[in-house]
Every structure is written in structure tokens, then in C-alpha cells.
Write a structure and sequence with these properties.
The complex is a heterodimer of chains A (289) and B (257). Chain A contains eleven helices and eleven strands. Chain A has 289 residues and is an alpha/beta fold. In chain A, helix 7 runs parallel beside helix 8. Chain B has a single domain, classed as 3-Layer(aba) Sandwich (Rossmann fold), CATH 3.40.50. Helices cover 38% and strands 25% of the residues of chain B. In chain B, 44% of the residues are buried. The chains are: A alpha/beta (289), B alpha/beta (257). Chains A and B meet through helix 8 and helix 9 of A and helix 6, helix 7, helix 8 and helix 9 of B.
Chain lengths: 289, 257
């Protein structure tokens, strides 16, 4: 088994804050080049902490332990901030839910992309503008040449997320970590952004770790998924298998709580009991090989 | 003839004047039968929230009329408007929009009753009942919103809306900010409350699968117009309008099966 195709491989990641019980416990994840892996969980499941840990973005108060944490080819378990600075935005990039918080409201979007290219040494002052336009076209920004001179507020939510993705992929990363990138978008726009992520994966061969609370979105986009509950991965496997034949009681309950046409209208949906014993059920993990 | 609590007749809402004018609602007509739920589906800018404001008489439409219980309420003021405000309640996406963080839960739920002029002993009794209806213990009365989870806060907001024993509740994306497992609890609660009290709902959402589950009829809005109306089955299985078809196509497969 070659590890060269792995763009992310983390083993037994545990994250804790202060003396509290760990908010992420013994999480192992693997993303290969060209693969989209989804992490699904509800609030407090620890999924966003995992995403931030993959990018070295957890606050100093977080204690991170792992047997191994290989990000874009490098062991980052004991990495210092200056090591992360070489990886982040270059070999591994992240996209967040709210595009406005990632963009500078006072800077034209073409200039923002060009700046990132120069900082990462992908282009120089002379070529950065032309290269920025290429990337804006790569993310299928409609009328890209004209929009280079737009400010973020002049764009729709979906177009802003395209700019954020453009910045993330500008330096051709091996790994893209996307934390709820379509949650704030309308359904029709969400479908377009999911298409874009899939297209970029096809064209660039990058691996994607996609974090979401939305089982439907995860099922639509990802080849493999991991279900997180209370800091642990309780189930993992191919998206088709997990959604069609969920094995862990939490995954089953989660699926049954979703209103769908197959559930008779106006009948009670399954509810996850507060006093459940899901923690006692063994995790159903599928080794990806 | 059906007994419609609400009739929206040819309502148009124009913002701005001249060339810069924008039609937020373009000749919208809808009927909501008593004791039923009309699901209103649309994306940002479709006009669904503008329609909610028109129904709540928060903004007088440019043209058209709103009939409630057979009477035209479009231009009512003063006492008649206050009475209408008791009969029609609202639940928002974010429960914090209707709960003052400095008020105890009991005070927040009692507020619409104070506004309606209900005497104090009766009010206390009604607040307890409302809290019980949404499945929260009486001990919640003296506590503050921050002591509750998001799902519990939405229950409190629903108790506040139910307290005045309204005939009609406008629910604007009431479960969109909740985890799916919590959304299931709130949807179950809303269905049960309707069965128990006969209250009528207008349920506004961007999620077709959610309205298919909760609503008797579904209306799809796009660019200020109702482009399609029918039962949940009709709209999901046999959409006629191109926009509805596009909306369905955009939904993840899981929510279409």
C-alpha cells in the first residue's frame, strides 16, 4: 500500500481544551489524491475542530495529540507555526462557510487573488493579474474579466464563494479542506458550488475533505464519508453504503430524523433520545485501502 | 366551499419608484384553509418573507388585499389591528429574535398576553399551559434564554406564539438553523400542536423536503410570483413550472427519495 497518493492521513487524533474531556477522540481519516471524503456531524460533534487541526488553525488553548498527522505529504504532528505557514494556502487550503469573512471588503477581487499568488510565489508582479484572471475563469466566474475589478459586496453569495475557492486553489494545493462551504447558500447555488468542487477535483486531482452537517450534500458529493458523534467517528465507509445501509445506531437515527418523501407526510419523525446509549455501540469503521 | 382562514388576493408590493422600482411581490394570490398548513418555498429574494410581512400587516401592500376570517384586514388600524396581532402570531428562524435575553422565559411568553390585555391570574395560567404544550417543565419559567439549547429556545418561541391562542401562525424558516435531529423534534411538535388546537400555519422555508413533510399544500415562489401550487406530492413528483423543476434538480438526491 503506497502512501504517496495520500494527501491527508491522520491517525488517532485527539483534541482537548483545558481539563475538559476531549472534544475529538481517536479520529483517523485518510484522503487520497483525487478523492472527496466527507465528515458529517451535528453541532458539537467535533467535525470543525478536526478540520481546523488539519490546517494547524486550532487556538493555542487546544491540546492536539495524534499518532501521526500527515498533511499534503508532510508529518505535521509536532509542526510549529512557521512550518504550517509553508503548507497552508500552498499545498493545503481551506474554505469556510462565510465567504465575506475570508475576503477583504475594500479590495477588488482580482487584486486579492493576485496578492495571494505573489505571497505564495506562484506569480510575480508582472504576471499575477493575468494568472488571477485564469483562476477566476477556472472557478467558472461568469464574465470573469469584468468582475476582476469588482469588490466583494458587488457579488452574489455564490460568486463570493467562487472567489474564496479561487484563492484556495490558486497555488494548486494537493488538499482542499472545505468546512460547510455551501451552508449559507440557496439550494440552486449550492448545487453549482458542489459541481465546481467536483470539477476542480477532476481537473486538478486534488483531494478534498468536506465537512458538513448536511447528509444530503455529503451523500451527493463524497465518495467516502465518516460520521462523527460526540467527538468520535462512529461509522465510516463508502457514501452509498453508509446512506443505504447505515450500521451504527446513531447513523440510523440521524437518517430517520430527516424529512424525505419516503417518510409518510405529517407522521412523527424519528427523534434521537437524550438518554441514548450510542456511545456504547461499537464504531463501524471501514478501512480504506 | 372551503373554510379559508387567510386569503391573499392579488397582492403586489413595489419598493422604490420609477425606473429603480422593484416588484417584491407581483400579483400574489393564496388561500389557506383552516387548520391546515400551507408551505411556502422559495430562495433568497423570492419574496416569501415580504409576503409574510404583508400577511402580518407589518407593511401595507401597494395593491391587493389580505382577508382574514372573511374580513378585509388590509388597512385596519388601532384596536382592530391590535386584535389581529393576537390572532396571528409569528415564529422566526432565530428564536433570539423573539426572546429578550434579559427577560425570564415566563415574561417573554406572557408578553403577547399583556399586549392583548389579559388579566394577570389568567395570564399566569395560560403561560404555564403554553409551556406544557411545547413539552418544557414549569421550572423553565424563571430561567433565561441563554440557559437553553437552540432547540429548546425554539420551543420557547413557539410557546410564546401559542400563548395567545392564535388562529394563525407564520413560521419563517423555524427549523433552518437547527440540527436535523432537533429539527425532527420541532416538526413533530408543530404537527402535534396543530392536531391539538386546530391552528393554521404558513410555513416558510427554502427546503422542499421539509414542507413536503409538514404541509397540506405547497406554493413555490420565484421573483415575487407564485409559480406553482399543489399538494406536496404533486410539486415533488410532477413539477410543472421550470423553476420548480430546477429547484428539485438542485436538491441532493437523498431529499428527493
Amino acid at each position: 500500500m503506497s502512501t504517496e497518493t495520500d494527501v491527508l492521513r491522520v491517525e488517532d487524533l485527539t483534541i482537548s481544551y483545558g481539563g475538559a474531556p476531549p472534544s475529538v477522540k481517536d479520529v483517523s481519516l485518510r484522503v487520497r489524491a483525487g478523492e472527496i471524503v466527507g465528515v458529517i456531524g451535528e453541532s458539537g460533534s467535533g467535525k470543525s475542530s478536526v478540520a481546523l487541526a488539519m490546517m494547524g488553525l486550532l487556538p493555542d488553548s487546544a491540546r492536539v495529540d495524534a499518532r501521526s498527522m500527515r498533511v499534503a505529504g508532510d508529518e505535521m504532528r509536532d509542526a510549529a507555526e512557521r512550518d504550517w505557514a509553508e503548507v497552508r494556502g500552498v499545498r493545503a487550503s481551506m474554505v469556510f462557510q462565510e465567504p465575506m469573512s475570508a475576503l477583504n471588503p475594500c479590495m477588488r477581487i482580482g487584486a486579492q487573488i493576485a496578492e495571494v499568488l505573489r505571497i505564495h510565489g506562484v506569480a510575480d508582479r508582472r504576471t499575477a493579474q493575468a494568472r488571477a484572471l485564469e483562476i477566476l475563469e477556472l472557478v467558472r466566474m461568469p464574465d470573469a474579466a469584468r468582475r476582476m475589478s469588482y469588490y466583494p459586496h458587488q457579488l452574489s453569495g455564490g460568486q463570493r464563494q467562487r472567489v474564496v475557492i479561487a484563492i484556495a486553489v490558486a497555488a494548486d494545493p494537493m488538499l482542499l479542506v472545505a468546512d460547510e462551504p455551501t451552508t449559507a447558500l440557496d439550494v440552486t447555488v449550492q448545487a453549482q458550488i458542489l459541481d465546481l468542487i467536483r470539477t476542480l477535483r477532476d481537473e486538478k486531482g486534488m483531494g478534498v475533505l468536506f465537512i458538513s452537517h448536511d447528509l444530503g450534500v455529503i451523500g451527493q458529493l463524497c465518495e467516502r464519508i465518516a460520521v462523527m458523534y460526540r467527538g468520535r467517528i462512529v461509522e465510516s465507509g463508502s457514501a452509498a453504503r453508509v446512506l443505504a445501509e447505515p450500521q451504527h445506531p446513531y447513523t440510523r437515527a440521524l437518517l430517520e430524523s430527516i424529512p424525505r418523501p419516503s417518510v409518510p407526510a405529517r407522521t412523527p419523525l424519528a427523534v434521537i433520545p437524550a438518554d441514548n446509549d450510542f456511545d456504547d455501540a461499537p464504531a463501524v469503521l471501514e478501512e480504506a485501502s | 366551499m372551503t373554510d379559508d382562514v387567510l386569503r391573499v388576493k392579488n397582492v403586489t408590493q413595489r419598493f422604490g419608484h420609477g425606473d429603480g422600482a422593484m416588484l417584491a411581490l407581483d400579483d400574489v394570490s393564496l388561500n389557506v384553509p383552516r387548520g391546515q398548513t400551507l408551505g411556502l418555498v422559495g430562495e433568497s429574494g423570492s419574496g416569501k418573507s415580504t409576503l409574510a410581512r404583508a400577511i402580518l400587516l407589518m407593511r401595507r401592500p401597494t395593491a391587493g388585499s389580505i382577508e382574514f376570517d372573511g374580513a378585509d384586514v388590509t388597512g385596519i388600524r388601532g384596536r382592530a389591528l391590535r386584535v389581529h396581532r393576537r390572532r396571528v402570531q409569528m415564529v422566526f428562524q432565530d428564536p433570539n429574535d423573539s426572546l429578550d435575553p434579559r427577560f425570564t422565559v415566563g415574561r417573554s411568553i406572557a408578553e403577547p398576553l399583556v399586549a392583548a390585555g389579559m388579566p394577570s391570574p389568567q395570564r399566569r395560567e395560560r403561560v404555564r399551559e403554553a409551556l406544557d404544550q411545547v413539552g418544557l417543565p414549569a421550572s423553565s419559567l424563571e430561567r433565561y434564554p441563554h440557559e437553553f439549547s437552540g432547540g429548546q429556545r425554539q420551543r420557547i418561541a413557539i410557546a410564546r406564539a401559542m400563548a395567545a391562542q392564535p388562529e394563525f401562525i407564520v413560521l419563517d424558516e423555524p427549523t433552518s438553523a437547527l440540527d436535523v435531529s432537533v429539527q425532527a423534534q420541532v416538526l413533530n411538535l408543530l404537527i402535534r400542536l396543530q392536531e391539538e388546537t386546530g391552528v393554521t400555519y404558513l410555513f416558510i422555508t427554502h427546503n422542499l423536503a421539509v414542507v413536503h413533510h409538514i404541509a397540506h399544500r405547497v406554493a413555490v415562489m420565484h421573483s415575487g410570483r407564485v409559480v406553482e401550487e399543489g399538494t406536496g406530492e404533486q410539486v415533488m413528483n410532477d413539477p410543472r413550472d421550470p423553476y420548480t423543476q430546477q429547484l428539485l434538480q438542485s436538491m441532493p438526491q437523498l431529499y428527493r427519495t
